[in-house]
Amino acid sequence: MRITVIGTGYLGAVHAACMADLGHEVLGVDTDAEKIAALADGRVPFFEPGLAEVLSRGIGSGALRFGTSLAEAARFGDVHFICVGTPQLPGFQAADLSAVHAVINGLVPQVTRDCLMVGKSTVPVGTAAHLAARIGQLAPGGVDVELAWNPEFLREGFAVEDTLRPSRLVAGAASAGAHATLRVVYAPIIHAGVPYIATDLASAELVKVSANAFLATKISFINAIADVCDAAGADINVVANAMGYDDRIGRRFLAAGIGFGGGCLPKDIRALTARAAELGVADSVCFLREVDDVNMSRRRRAFEIARDLLGGSFTGRNVAVLGAAFKPATDDVRDSPALHIATAMQVEGARVRVHDPKAADNARKVSPALGYALDIEETCEQADIVLHLTEWPQYRDLDPAALGAIVRRRCLFDGRNALPLDRWRTAGWAVRALGRPAQTAARPAAEHG
Ligand code: UGA
User: Domain end: 152, 169, 199, which one?
Assistant: First the structure.
């Protein structure tokens, strides 16, 4: 099939490359000419494991190309995937849908033959129905343009794997024809046994936000219990491990720590709250405000614990921060808890040096006042405290004794409950974490994500 992917950020670039890998002819389109030039050249403008290989395979075979013209996209595509961002509207809880509207307004009047528009961006429930009506007004006479909504569940860091081998395909559409087209698009994935769940537009939109809201709730739940652990002298890792044996609960997304960030979970719970209010059911999801509050309070707790460990003040202190990305295996720093905490300490007078194996360049752009070091040793040299804020695997393997020789004070805050704290204590470090007052068990290595 001839497929266009409009919007080539974390979602669209991966989707375009993976659609070419499935055997389609693909045109990726974005307004950012620099990004398009990089992708056309086979260079991934962000860090995503495995994407460079799939991208160069597509470009090399001629199945995948990139451009900036919606007119060209309109001429080319049988199926148009909308993958543009829907960030939080500044100053509001709701999502900013202007990029989605711009695609519909720009593309639909220019199509010359029947086609299917497929939304993948995360949108408030009801958006697709509204857009379908708008498409009806904009489509040239005699041309049939239908809209389906096919939310994306990929995780950054596992995006290629999640796109080619997803847990499920969910698609909302009004007609059997639209579902038939999508079944052709995803034929190799469906043949591999992945369920294709055909729904109406509203249910498809809601599956996505509900899934993210549930994951956010799970994280805030365990973080709230971590506070109870602190008060009661229990260990949150032990509690979560034991809870996770129950299949109904599961251990994943029960990693307590400084909480969730990124471009999805925080804005999606807020957008759902805003949409529920518009629909007159604000009270039904009011717990999501608590989920948000518990999450943001993690950052304050981390800041306070670090300040306590430093004797009550950051002024003039050297602070080493391990991790800037919102989670490991990505260079994305959008709403990163690590950067948030690092910046708060710097504002309070600390000299903060940050290390991240992939996200330092992005972090420098949004937080230029922080110091950045290329290696862990340089980051920790003469540090009064080391904060572990993003659980990259290499931090788990650090030698506390060797690191202890270069810091000024052996003082550690593990914000991700992922370090073997007994080893650090044995090496003479004063250690604090969230929900683990005296215990030392680390959480299992591979359960994140
Ligand atoms: C999330 C969802 O997991 C994807 O299914 C969804 O497609 C995506 O949003 C999206 O809407 O596009 P992602 O933002 O890549 O994916 O990141 P997650 O792996 O969900 O992690 C989110 C945050 O939660 C990170 O900051 C992570 O450190 C934190 N987290 C995760 C915890 O604090 N504890 C956990 O147990 C798990």
Answer: 199
